[in-house]
Design a protein that fits this description.
With about 180 residues, the chain is mainly alpha-helical. The protein has helices at about 5-15, 15-20, 30-35, 40-45, 55-65, 70-80, 85-95, 125-160, 160-180; strands at about 110, 115, 120-125. α4 (about 40-45) packs parallel to α7 (about 85-95) and α5 packs across α6.
Length: about 180
């Protein structure tokens, strides 16, 4: 039996990743199941780990670096001679779906164009834009409040009582706006 046929025979004996690690891969959304069913080199490409402009050596180095595996392991996975470890596939799936790995992100997921928290709150791009705008407005108001306080101190030091009352009122109004829970 030649080497080419023995590789084909060997790879036919390999179980699919979803069969070798069923508990972690139950009830996956269709896009994730399609990802899991793809060959490992395609999973790496979909996850953005490797791309068409890379040489084989660069791709191999990137897979080793990203998944913390030896060169021989990465070669076996990329060639299809061995199934990748299910944890490596889940890590690539997280990259593919855009959810960073880590305990702070446990339970977060994407649904359509919204990032959904573990308790079901959605953050859409529109909400993100509004939060950014509000954060910027708060920063501007804090700057203006600081400027108004500096003017109050300056007016107090020169004894300009008529202007001082107006500046104090403006400073008070800005402080009240800042205290509103945004």
């Amino acid at each position: 039996m030649d080497k080419k046929n023995s590789v084909k025979k060997f790879s036919k004996k390999l179980p699919s990743v979803s069969k070798s690690f069923p508990l972690a891969l139950n009830n996956l959304p269709p896009d994730a199941q399609s990802f899991i069913d793809s060959p490992f080199d395609r999973q790496c490409w979909l996850a953005g780990i490797i791309h068409g402009g890379m040489s084989r050596t660069e791709a191999l180095e990137k897979v080793c670096e990203t998944l913390l595996v030896s060169e021989s392991t990465a070669k076996r996975w990329l060639s299809g001679r061995a199934q990748p470890h299910p944890c490596a596939v889940l890590y690539l799936l997280a990259h593919y779906r855009g959810v960073p790995p880590g305990k702070d992100w446990t339970g977060w997921r994407f649904v359509g164009n919204a990032l959904v928290s573990p308790n079901g709150e959605s953050i859409t791009p529109e909400i993100h834009r509004r939060l950014y705008w509000l954060t910027n407005e708060i920063r501007i108001m804090r700057d203006e409040t600081g400027t108004a306080r500096a003017k109050v101190r300056m007016l107090e030091s020169i004894g300009a009582a008529d202007r001082l009352d107006k500046v104090r009122l403006a400073s008070k109004l800005l402080s009240e706006v800042m205290s509103v829970g945004v």
